[in-house]
Amino acid sequence: MRHGNADRSDGQVAQAATDPAKPAQAEDVDDSSKFFWFHRANADPATARTDIEYCSLQVSAISGRVQPNAGASFGLIGALVGGIINGMTAAVEARRMRDVGMRKCMGAYGYDRYAMAEVDWNALMRAPDVLDRMVAFTTAATPVGTKVPA
Questions:
Q1: In this structure, how many other beta carbons lie within 10 angstroms of the beta carbon of residue 38?
Q2: What's the CA gap between 60 and 102, in Å, rounded?
Q3: Number of domains the chain contains
Q4: Sheet of 112-115, strands arranged across
């Protein structure tokens, strides 16, 4: 699995994130359970925007579980280490749970999920106009990437 964009210029990464018709390169495709977005044929932008906003609101309150008193029996250092591990584990669990929630919510509205390259996903999700880019990807004539089974 490759990380980064050694073979791609910054312009190519930005182009892939803004050009919904350009497919990701096969060697750049990473874990489809993490790096994906949705597409629905013939979806109009206003409906897609509403669906994305609604589903995002539904999953926004999801948080990971924290183990109480993890490491407390090993003193202050054990409690500190346990707290750090709990924090990282809870963040990963929360992200996975939000991803599952988005898949179920968007799937209920008829959207299919498409795998993306990690660099393209990062460019999409960290853009200042992220919602506009999500809508453009969701409503593009030709979806980017490989369709991921439900």
A1: 24
A2: 10
A3: 1
A4: 36-39, 112-115, 147-148
